[in-house]
């Protein structure tokens, strides 16, 4: 595998009056194909809080009813907003398609940066895998649930959902690898469609549904059926509400394909979280006024389908809105294939994958082989859905768990190394930076622990949270790769050039 490279001290960028970005080997880098609006659209449609949270409202509802989910979202928005603020500054300082992987390498001490960056890169790949299979299985499940809605004799089997998952992944691989620029334009259209759907959904729910809950029920009737005490139930509910803001790192993986990434990437991150917070909070409050059977929503395999059934009482209306949600979620799938392919490519160009030279080559100015590897991983991991629902759910829980760790890790490093190590950047937190990095780190530590708690008590074999076990198994892969020889070939990001 060659001699082990000596760790290189890569300090802050020098200011030569030109924008800096990491683009890997000068002979093989991505073209500037995305505008600021495209990156904002990527960021918003990946997070798409009011849409994405529709698949995860069952747990916070069980942990506190309407007040639990409303106030849980407010607290979760503050938590993720703080984490995102600190991460946006780092993304401004070190723009790269590697995202967290590249940032960790740049802020860690030279003695630790190679191993820290390597495991951060693989943790990012694992997180994207989990997020992608979650969204795609949701789309596949929704298709089959629509069939069951119109055909009561139709019986849904896990293998049918899996095959649909594979088919949807094949389509996503083709369009994202061959037409990445078109995905950017599609994202803009979906961005405005999401905002239009948000307004239309509010009107539909509040106008069509006549028997609304009272304000006291919505804002004050705290009903905890999770089995936890009220205090712990609220914490578990807040932890579940964090899912509304997943995907904060998305724009960073496009940094090499957008002009002025030091400015534009933080803008995209901020707008995605800000718009996401406003839309999901308003939508949930409106929804709580029309929900009549909380238990039915908690027990539904597709909670949003049950919500619209209760709110609208019409198969046709429910079908229309379910199709709309499938379009929104499939856009997230496309985005994650884009992000995943670029993360794999970024890691491979630094020797972080077996056969790195193969995966580091571009086709059509796109990391097609990296996207193809993500496709293979999705076909494999989707089997969990058939084998064990508990194992599948625990793997999905890796999404936000691993993401938060990767975006908080470089912020924690700054607390020890000092913020003076940061280069000049378009977005700076200035004197508030240390406090933001500290609070973000503490938030991630606390909620990483609560993510490991079971959501319902008493615990059964099916309701047990196996996140720690799944995380340990997931870490075995990069651990084996590292000691299997990649510790000798992996260099970490080496080339910083002007663009």
UniProtKB/TrEMBL annotation:
Residue runs in coiled coils: none
Membrane topology: Multi-pass membrane protein
Transmembrane segments: 36-62, 68-94, 115-139, 159-176, 188-208, 228-246, 267-291, 323-345, 366-388, 394-416, 436-457, 463-484
Recorded GO MF terms: transmembrane transporter activity
InterPro entries, per database record: AA/rel_permease1
Listed Pfam families: AA_permease_2
Listed GO CC annotations: membrane
Subcellular location: Membrane
Keywords: Membrane, Transmembrane, Transmembrane helix, Transport
Record PANTHER family: AMINO-ACID PERMEASE BAT1, TRANSPORTER, PUTATIVE (EUROFUNG)-RELATED
Protein name listed in UniProt: Amino acid transporter
